[in-house]
Amino acid sequence: MSVKLDHGSDELEENHEINVTPFIDVMLVLLIIFMVAAPLATVDVPVDLPVSTAERKPKPDKPLYLTVKSDLSFILRDTPVARDALGVALDQATSGDKQERIFLRADKSVPYGELMQAMNVLRAAGYLKIALVGLEQ
């Protein structure tokens, strides 16, 4: 911070130097706000997953999640999908690659029969590589 002290005259002179300290302070505050807010912006679909004791496997860079919510609605990645349009939506998401693994996750309150129907829909669409997602214990 620079200060110009001149006790000789009563007139105020213009200082043509730019004081960047307030600008830097504002930028640091914005940086902190974005650092805190960025992880909150990547929230997935809220699902209460059951706990699994299976050994953890590495997942791909961009896994394709199919979520069955507690109200039995389907969500592919972050987009709601109707049950009858699921095959078309999967073909668009995978570019027609039937060998891509689909990560199926469901809420704890979803009945087993509904989960099996979701797997039957995937099988009917030609997707046979299905991984069930759960929480680690």
Describe what this molecule looks like in 3D.
It is a single chain. The chain is of the alpha/beta class and 137 residues long. Helices cover 31% and strands 17% of the residues. It is built from 3 helices and 7 strands; from the N terminus they run αββββαβαββ. It has helices at 21-40, 86-94, 112-124, and strands at residues 51-52, 64-68, 74-76, 79-81, 102-106, 130-132, 135-136. The strands form 2 sheets. The protein has a 5-stranded mixed sheet, with helices on one face. It has a two-stranded parallel ribbon with strand order 1-7. The model has no long low-confidence stretch (mean pLDDT 82).
Mean pLDDT: 82
What share of residues is helical?
Answer: 25-40%
User: Approximately how much beta-strand content do the residues carry?
Assistant: 15-25%
Please mark out the parts with pLDDT under 50 across 5 or more consecutive residues, or reply none. none
Task: Tell me about the largest β-sheet.
Answer: 5 strands, mixed
How many helix segments?
Answer: 3
The coarse overall form would be elongated
Order of helices and strands: HEEEEHEHEE
Give the radius of gyration.
Answer: 27 Å
Distance between the termini: 55 Å
The SS-based structural class is alpha/beta
Number of strands: 7
